[in-house]
Amino acid sequence: MILSRTVVIKKVFGKRFNIDLFIEVMSKLENIRILIVGAGIAGSALFRRLKAQGHQVDIIEKSPTLTNEGAAICLPANAMIELKKLNLVDQVMACAHQVNQIEYALSNGKTLAKASLNDAPLNKAPFVALKRDALMNILRKDIAEEITLDTCLTHIEQTGESATVTFNNGYTQHYDLVVGADGINSHVRGIIQPDTPLLKHTVTNWRFITQKPSQDFQPVYYVGDTSLFMIYPISNEEVYCYGHVIDPTEQYYAMPVKTALNAVFANYAAPIKHCLDNMPDNDHIIRGGLKSVAKTESVYNNVVLIGDALHGCPPSLQQGAGMSLEDVNCLADQLADNTLDLKKVLVNYQQARSARVAWTVQESNKIIKLAGLGQSFIGRLVRNFIIRRTGPANVVGWRKLLAEKI
Questions:
Q1: For the chain, which domains are there?
Q2: Rounded Cα–Cα distance for residues 304 and 315 (Å)
Q3: What's the angle, vertex CA 399, arms to CA 395 and CA 402, rounded to 5?
Q4: Is the model's pLDDT at 88 over the cut of 80?
Q5: Dist CA 290 CA 51 (whole Å)
Q6: 372-381 long-range Cβ contacts below 8 angstroms, 24+ apart
Q7: What is the CA radius of gyration of the chain?
Q8: Whole-angstrom Cα distance, residue 89 to residue 132?
Q9: CA 198 to chain CA centroid, nearest Å
Q10: Of 396, 392, 298, 397, which Cα lies nearest the Cα of 104?
Q11: Are 239 and 211 a contacting pair, CB within 8 Å?
Q12: What angle do the packed helices 132-140 and 41-52 form, to 10 degrees?
């Protein structure tokens, strides 16, 4: 059991001093020692919360500098709800752009379905988007100097009560808890799941920021036969663009990024042409491939996974940040409960997150499969019928997440 200083004062100094009681209580006072691996969204947010709780927390980052991978980020309502718990909503809203509607359209611009984000339960919090580096600057404010850079783990040895970690500099340290927050290509997950490779979706994707096609622009997802292009406003002047194509032979991945983008989306509607004509230089276009974790088990004795290390998957539901922040607050809330020992904390965390995490990964993968139906004529008819009947696929998922049905 971990006791707070307030509890100590009440137990010891609220009555006649008792040395035996003092020793007993002080032995329970020592907060647990925690290592956070990864200083991205999940790691930085968790560090903020645990430091505020008084735990002994170390945070490491494998990169030699605090760079930000990714152009921009979309934050659905559940992400904003979690940011409110971190007292960061005002800071995020000051540099974000709020949207009120989602549209799915064919590649020629013809609307398939629209959904308002002002209807319950979607209206529980604003839906916004902003540059990724702006979000990271907010999360890392006042903690950047405490992040140990150019550092990663090479080994974790667990006992019943602690974990001994070996760092890439050969140094070893004992921790009560190791938190893997090091992304979808998590080294921590690789150590504790050595025979569980990521699932690859044979999809190449690109992300970049460019000028907005027109004023009063709401997010639109254009779906083609084997490709998709999203335009999401992040300010009054700029939009976040995401495009992907089914690419089993990686022919488009091998092309120069601008050549590939123009080849895949040449016949798309005018707003996409505007974005392609105003693409940034190659260094500011991020190319990748869609992957998913194979397992969503979060606790391995004294090691716990959060963020994309736990539930990395395609951005179909745009839940990378939202689910990560839910992980952070769930784990931190459990650690703040002074009546629980660490084992019970981790049991509670896994039980609280298990179904929701597994559903989110499965649903995100399912949406990718839905998009893939466009490869055949019959498949396109089925896909388009489903979208017209049920609405934008991501909004369908958001409703379930916000209604807390899972």
A1: 33-402 (3.50.50.60)
A2: 23
A3: 130
A4: yes
A5: 34
A6: 372/226, 372/246, 374/223, 374/224, 374/225, 374/226, 375/225, 375/226, 375/246, 380/225
A7: 23
A8: 15
A9: 16
A10: 392
A11: yes
A12: 20
CB 342 within 8 A of CB 28: no
pLDDT given for residue 274 in this prediction: 96
3-class state of residue 259 by DSSP: helix
Residue type at 74 in one-letter notation: C
Is the per-residue pLDDT at 5 higher than 80? Answer: no
- Residue pair 364/316 in contact (Cβ under 8 Å)? The answer is yes
The reported pTM is 0.91
Beta carbons of 56 and 175 less than 8 angstroms apart: no
Instruction: Based on DSSP, count helices (H) and strands (E) in the chain, helices before strands.
Output: 15, 19
To 10 degrees, the CA torsion angle through 393, 397, 403, 406?
150
Among residues 132, 28, 129, 5, the alpha carbon closest in space to that of 74 is found at: 129
DSSP-based three-state secondary structure for 239: strand
CA distance linking residue 136 with residue 140, whole number of Å? 6
% pLDDT > 70, the chain: 92
Q: Which residue has the tokens 């997150």?
A: 353
The secondary element (H helix, E strand) that includes residue 180 is: strand 177-180
Stretch 27-34: mean pLDDT: 66
